[in-house]
Amino acid sequence: MDKLKPCPFCGGEAEIEQIPAATFDKFAPHCKSRKCIAFYIGYCDEGIYDTRSAATEAWNRRAGEQE
Predict the structure, then answer these.
(1) What's the sign of the alpha-carbon dihedral 8, 58, 56, 66?
(2) Is the overall model pTM greater than 0.70, yes or no?
(3) What is the pLDDT along the chain (67 residues), one digit of tens a residue?
(4) Which terminus of the chain faces fewer neighbouring Cβ atoms within 10 Å, N or C?
Protein backbone atom coordinates (compact mmCIF):
# COMPACT_ATOMS: atom_id res chain seq x y z
CA MET A 1 0.00 0.00 0.00
CA ASP A 2 1.24 3.47 -0.87
CA LYS A 3 2.01 5.83 1.97
CA LEU A 4 -0.29 8.81 2.39
CA LYS A 5 1.16 12.30 2.62
CA PRO A 6 0.30 14.35 5.71
CA CYS A 7 -2.86 16.44 5.62
CA PRO A 8 -2.32 19.56 3.48
CA PHE A 9 -4.39 21.64 5.90
CA CYS A 10 -3.15 20.69 9.38
CA GLY A 11 -0.16 18.41 8.74
CA GLY A 12 -1.87 15.57 10.60
CA GLU A 13 -2.06 11.89 9.76
CA ALA A 14 -4.36 10.74 6.96
CA GLU A 15 -6.21 7.49 6.34
CA ILE A 16 -8.31 5.85 3.67
CA GLU A 17 -11.66 4.61 4.90
CA GLN A 18 -13.37 1.76 3.10
CA ILE A 19 -17.04 2.60 2.65
CA PRO A 20 -19.36 -0.35 1.97
CA ALA A 21 -22.00 0.24 -0.66
CA ALA A 22 -24.86 -1.93 -1.90
CA THR A 23 -22.79 -4.31 -4.04
CA PHE A 24 -19.26 -2.85 -4.02
CA ASP A 25 -16.86 -0.91 -1.82
CA LYS A 26 -15.66 2.64 -2.24
CA PHE A 27 -12.66 4.39 -0.68
CA ALA A 28 -12.48 7.82 0.92
CA PRO A 29 -9.21 9.51 1.95
CA HIS A 30 -9.36 12.03 4.77
CA CYS A 31 -7.50 13.55 7.71
CA LYS A 32 -7.81 11.59 10.97
CA SER A 33 -8.31 14.77 13.03
CA ARG A 34 -11.98 15.60 13.58
CA LYS A 35 -10.92 19.22 14.16
CA CYS A 36 -9.60 19.53 10.61
CA ILE A 37 -11.69 20.54 7.60
CA ALA A 38 -10.12 17.65 5.64
CA PHE A 39 -11.75 15.13 8.01
CA TYR A 40 -15.03 15.79 6.20
CA ILE A 41 -13.66 15.50 2.65
CA GLY A 42 -14.17 11.73 2.71
CA TYR A 43 -17.87 12.19 3.32
CA CYS A 44 -18.77 14.11 0.18
CA ASP A 45 -19.36 12.59 -3.25
CA GLU A 46 -16.25 14.23 -4.73
CA GLY A 47 -14.04 12.55 -2.11
CA ILE A 48 -15.04 8.95 -2.82
CA TYR A 49 -13.08 6.71 -5.21
CA ASP A 50 -13.57 3.27 -6.78
CA THR A 51 -10.17 1.91 -5.72
CA ARG A 52 -7.80 2.37 -2.80
CA SER A 53 -5.00 3.33 -5.20
CA ALA A 54 -7.15 6.05 -6.81
CA ALA A 55 -7.99 7.43 -3.36
CA THR A 56 -4.30 7.43 -2.39
CA GLU A 57 -3.30 9.15 -5.64
CA ALA A 58 -5.96 11.83 -5.18
CA TRP A 59 -4.99 12.50 -1.55
CA ASN A 60 -1.29 12.72 -2.36
CA ARG A 61 -1.79 15.13 -5.29
CA ARG A 62 -0.74 18.68 -4.39
CA ALA A 63 -1.25 21.90 -6.33
CA GLY A 64 1.84 22.91 -8.29
CA GLU A 65 3.43 19.44 -8.35
CA GLN A 66 4.37 17.82 -11.62
CA GLU A 67 2.39 14.71 -12.56
Answers:
(1) negative
(2) yes
(3) 579 999 999 999 999 999 887 667 889 999 999 999 998 876 676 788 999 999 999 999 998 877 6
(4) C
